[in-house]
């Protein structure tokens, strides 16, 4: 196997040439091995001026004997004739109270009629730039400076964000490489037999073992010290108290932040080494000692430019929508991420959900909390007046549930989302009034304040207008287990919401499972459906309000935008005016051929809230995947469930074909509003971004001919930053907008993009 050969450019007076080191990592190095490597190197690299020979795992005296007895020096002398090619022996040597890497010249001689080498016996310290140049070459050829794939960036364990990171483990793939790094590390650190060695990432343990072999071969260490990894920033606080005999190795750094914290924990400057350092800013500070500085500067023939990193709070990459790839020390492996296209089909909508939505449409049941971000709750709400009041869409079915499943005798009723008076009215209208007689009726907030005798068996009924907060239901369930003491408990809901079928099944199991098995308790709902839940992302209406406020802070808004801002500032829970109107001021309405809802009758009574609910349900089903979208048929725990979310391995984008397949303007608007920012982040993939660009240019052209009613929503999504295209496609779109005959309010909207 070929030995490790590293190169750097070396300046000597006015000349500059290659200086190459050959590292022999075997314990049984032979003279012929060395001679053959020198010969092959000269034939491959004829411009090499200096060749250095190193054998980390054997002592210097043994390597010197091999060079004296072999013909490596002779081959070096004969390699280039008149050109001054020199052969050097490199070794780690004791120098007073420190160790340092030194070299001696090895000249060609002839002894006893045989060609041989003659070490000069004059040792001198090696130029530090040679050592760092070889380590840079090792780092560079190993591909250890890792670039994030398009549309992603790294969240380092230090908290900084960057499109690059240093992966030192890539340089530790051979014993020769570990041996060289070990020699350099021993020369940089204090000459002291360590009691313990701590490394920030596990791959550096190979360097510790190499340091032990190098040091014991030369008599510098007596035994292998205890060594362990502490997992960088994540594990530094678990380190024991660091003392004089402790050595600490850091794989790589761009700011010196980890070294600074380790010094606070007791590490000593002379016993703290960073293997690779690449400056991220001018204020970066190297602490302890460094084996190799990768940063380029004027006096060097090698190096990288400064790495760009950003604080998490002001990261421009996050603003652009780049996905964050989490890192832990040096152990993260990343590849180009695949794209998963989220597509909506007529079959995506489940039949039960379609029937439920047909029932609730035209009743004004669905409303949107336009500025809410309450975690654990759906992005939609149901108007109680349209669902459980007299004539409401769930009144009769909910009444039948009360009649059939209310425990008898009933001791306790807990109301969630409705009060005792309303529950009694529903029960009286549906013939279930007697079932509630004699029961204590309280709201869920008063449950903990009830003063009940312990160990009494009680029957309880829990009623929800809409069960969407699953954690709240579980909390009530846990409280009732101690209150009812073996009694019957029934949970009834007008509508139950969940993000996936598995989440719905988990809730059902939790509420019904008890000491008698799966059906110990009862859980029934008049309707069930999948809907998206709030994340920590601002709603599209909040982003729209912030955008218009920003424009208004610099110049007067056009009348259409000022009217829109006034509405947004006063909006709460709404079911109309959710989308931007058409060019002539009309509110978007459902078309007669709407694919997800029959609209042959009373189409004008379908509200924008109804359409947003329908599209949100279809989108939730698409995100859940076919196997996880059918309520009552959740996949088993061992079944693969598609994860339609953003990760460092794949990205989910809303396929532009959805906007082509469904050309209804209100459907397109609802899809833009209900999609997440990451699903509209087309900057992550050039091909999908190009498809969206073609669609938008087509919308601009259709607008000029009197169509394209959804264009204002597309432009708003771009201006608010929820939809993003690649830079080149964004420029092309701007050019298309310039030549389009847009009204002034849309021009003002586009100018904020």
Can you tag this structure with a few keywords?
24 helices, single chain, six-stranded parallel beta sheet, 753 residues, 21% strand, Rossmann fold, elongated, alpha/beta, seven-stranded mixed beta sheet, 29 strands, 4 domains
Describe the overall structure.
With 753 residues, this protein is an alpha/beta fold. Helices cover 34% and strands 21% of the residues. The protein contains 24 helices and 29 strands. Strands 1, 2, 3, 4, 5, 6 and 7 form a seven-stranded mixed sheet that branches. Strands 22, 23, 24, 25, 26 and 27 form a six-stranded parallel sheet that branches. Strands 13-12-14-15-16 form a five-stranded parallel sheet. Helix 1 links the parallel strand 2 (15-23) and strand 3 (48-54). Helix 10 (351-360) runs antiparallel to helix 18 (608-624), helix 21 (686-704) packs parallel to helix 23 and helix 22 (711-719) packs parallel to helix 24.
**Helix content percent band:** 25-40%
Instruction: Give a short account of the largest sheet.
Output: 7 strands, mixed
Q: What structural category characterises the helix and strand content? A: alpha/beta
Work out the radius of gyration: 36 Å
- Share of β-strand residues: 15-25%
Taking the alpha carbons of the first and last residues, their distance comes to 58 Å
Give the rounded overall mean pLDDT. 86
Shape: elongated
- How many separate helices? 24
Number of strands: 29
Summarize the structure.
This protein has 753 residues and is α/β, with parallel strands linked by helices. 34% of the residues lie in helices and 21% in strands. Strands 1, 2, 3, 4, 5, 6 and 7 form a seven-stranded mixed beta sheet that branches. Strands 22, 23, 24, 25, 26 and 27 form a six-stranded parallel beta sheet that branches. A five-stranded parallel beta sheet has the order 13-12-14-15-16.
């Amino acid at each position: 196997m070929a030995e490790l050969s590293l190169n750097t450019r070396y300046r000597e007076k006015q000349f500059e040439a290659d200086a190459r080191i050959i590292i022999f990592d075997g314990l049984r190095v032979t003279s012929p091995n060395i001679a053959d490597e020198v010969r092959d190197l000269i034939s491959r690299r004829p411009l090499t001026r200096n060749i250095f020979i190193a054998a980390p795992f054997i002592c210097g005296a043994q390597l010197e004997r091999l060079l004296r007895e072999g013909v490596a020096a002779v081959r070096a002398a004969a390699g280039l004739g008149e050109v001054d090619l020199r052969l050097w022996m490199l070794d780690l040597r004791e120098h007073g109270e420190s160790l340092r890497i030194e070299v001696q010249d090895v000249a060609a001689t002839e002894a006893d009629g045989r060609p041989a080498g003659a070490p000069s016996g004059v040792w001198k310290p090696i130029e530090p730039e040679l050592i760092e140049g070889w380590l840079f070459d090792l780092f560079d050829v190993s591909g250890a400076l890792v670039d994030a794939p398009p549309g992603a960036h790294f969240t380092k364990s230090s908290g900084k964000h960057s499109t690059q990171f240093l992966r030192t483990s890539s340089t530790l793939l051979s014993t020769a490489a570990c041996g060289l790094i070990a020699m350099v590390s021993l020369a940089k650190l204090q000459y002291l037999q360590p009691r313990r060695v701590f490394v920030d990432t596990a791959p550096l343990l190979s360097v510790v073992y190499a340091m032990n072999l190098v040091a014991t071969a030369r008599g510098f260490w007596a035994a292998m010290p205890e060594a362990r990894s502490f997992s960088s920033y994540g594990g530094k606080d678990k380190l024991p108290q660091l003392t004089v005999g402790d050595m600490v190795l850091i794989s790589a750094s761009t700011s010196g932040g980890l070294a600074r914290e380790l010094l606070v924990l007791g590490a000593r400057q002379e016993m703290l080494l960073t293997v690779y350092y690449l400056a991220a800013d001018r204020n970066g500070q190297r602490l302890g000692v460094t084996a190799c500085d990768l940063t380029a500067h004027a006096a060097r023939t090698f190096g990288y430019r400064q790495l760009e990193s950003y604080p998490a709070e002001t990261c421009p990459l996050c603003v652009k929508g780049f996905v964050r790839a989490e890192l832990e020390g040096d152990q993260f492996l990343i590849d180009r991420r695949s794209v998963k296209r989220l597509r909506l089909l007529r079959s995506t909508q489940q039949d039960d959900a379609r029937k439920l939505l047909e029932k609730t449409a035209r009743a004004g049941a669905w409303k949107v909390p336009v500025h809410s971000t309450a975690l654990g709750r759906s992005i939609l709400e149901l108007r109680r007046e349209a669902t459980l009041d007299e004539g409401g869409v769930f009144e009769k079915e909910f009444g039948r549930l009360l009649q059939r499943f209310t425990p008898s005798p009933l001791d306790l009723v807990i109301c969630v989302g409705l009060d005792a008076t309303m529950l009694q009215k529903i029960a009286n209208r549906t013939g279930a009034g007697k079932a509630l007689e004699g029961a204590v009726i309280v709201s869920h907030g008063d449950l903990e304040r009830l003063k009940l005798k312990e160990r009494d068996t009680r029957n309880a009924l829990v009623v929800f207008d809409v069960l969407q907060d699953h954690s709240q239901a579980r909390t009530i369930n846990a409280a009732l287990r101690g209150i009812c003491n073996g009694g019957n408990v029934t949970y009834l809901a007008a509508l139950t919401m969940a993000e996936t079928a598995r989440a719905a099944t988990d809730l059902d199991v939790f509420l019904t499972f008890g000491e008698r098995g799966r059906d110990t308790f009862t859980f029934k709902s008049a309707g069930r459906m999948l809907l998206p839940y709030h994340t920590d992302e601002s709603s599209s209406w909040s982003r729209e309000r912030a955008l218009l406020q920003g424009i208004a802070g610099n110049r007067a808004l056009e009348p259409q935008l000022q009217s829109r801002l006034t509405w947004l500032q006063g909006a709460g829970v709404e079911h109309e005016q959710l989308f931007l109107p058409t060019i002539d001021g009309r509110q978007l309405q459902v078309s007669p051929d709407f694919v997800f809802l029959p609209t042959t009758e009373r189409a004008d009574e379908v509200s924008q809230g109804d359409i947003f609910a329908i599209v949100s349900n279809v989108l939730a089903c698409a995100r859940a995947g076919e196997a996880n979208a059918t309520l009552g048929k959740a996949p088993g725990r061992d079944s693969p469930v598609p994860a339609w979310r953003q990760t460092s391995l794949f990205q989910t984008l809303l396929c532009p074909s959805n906007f082509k397949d469904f050309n209804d303007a209100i459907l397109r608007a609802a899809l833009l509003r209900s999609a997440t920012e990451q699903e509209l982040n087309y900057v992550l993939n050039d091909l999908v971004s190009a498809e969206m660009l073609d669609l938008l240019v087509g919308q601009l052209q259709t607008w000029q001919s009197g169509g394209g009613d959804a264009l204002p929503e597309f432009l708003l999504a771009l201006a608010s930053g929820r939809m993003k295209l690649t830079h080149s496609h964004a420029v092309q779109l701007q050019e298309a907008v310039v030549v389009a005959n847009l009204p002034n309010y849309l021009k003002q909207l586009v100018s904020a993009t």
